[in-house]
Amino acid sequence: MKKQLALLLTSVLLVGILAACGTSEKKDTNTADNKDKKVLVMGTSADYPPFEYVETSKSDEIKGFDIDIAKAIGKKLGYEVKVKDIDFNSLVPALENKSIDFVISGMTPTAKREQSVDFSDIYYTAKNMIVTTKDSKIKTVEDLKGKTVGVQLASIQETLATDLNKNKDIGMKVEKRNRIPEVVQEMSSGRFDAVIMEDTVAKGYLKDNKDLVGYVIKSGEEDAGSAIAFQKGSKLTEEFNAELKKMLENGEMEKLILKWFGGSETE
Questions:
Q1: Which among 135, 156, 234, 236 is least surrounded, fewest beta carbons within 10 Å?
Q2: How many angstroms separate the CA atoms of 183 and 150, rounded?
């Protein structure tokens, strides 16, 4: 009886040891898989709906047109894309210090930015717009003379406002803030007379606030285009460009534009 009990105990112990070995092997395999997985950190300023934003009433997830593009390309190239929310004026420095791999944040290539980072081809083109209150009587760039105008810090609209101010007949006061909601709030509170922003982004604010109106800036300049920014010399530039081209040619980009912008143009 004792012999049979000893054999039974030995069998139980052996099964336990084999099971433990099996678990250990599986765990090690999973760890190896995680190490081999390719992860890219994407920088964006999540205050720019419908390009990138957080719907705080529902979740902390960053979503939008740019996010869909980044994740679609990442999936095609075999990368997992992790999104990092950063103030817009800190995005280029983050690429320079290599804390992120690429930026997609409605960013327009400029000569100044191209000194620090590389850009993909343009994937979306929009217009600049003056957004103001209905009672302001501001409709054109000339109407901004002597007014206080808000723009996002380090944005193409800041550059536009600076260039417009070179015309002595305009002479507006330009105020800068880190995030788009901040400049809109300043205007709604009466501290700014108007805001210059991209028309696609303006649509959301105009839809949600009937006291606001918007007018496209017809300056004769080429419309602002959005591109993806990369570290200087990054191999990702060529990889992403190839996938962007495919998306533009096969209709995939068109579907995303219709999804996020409704396919209508702002007049």
A1: 135
A2: 6
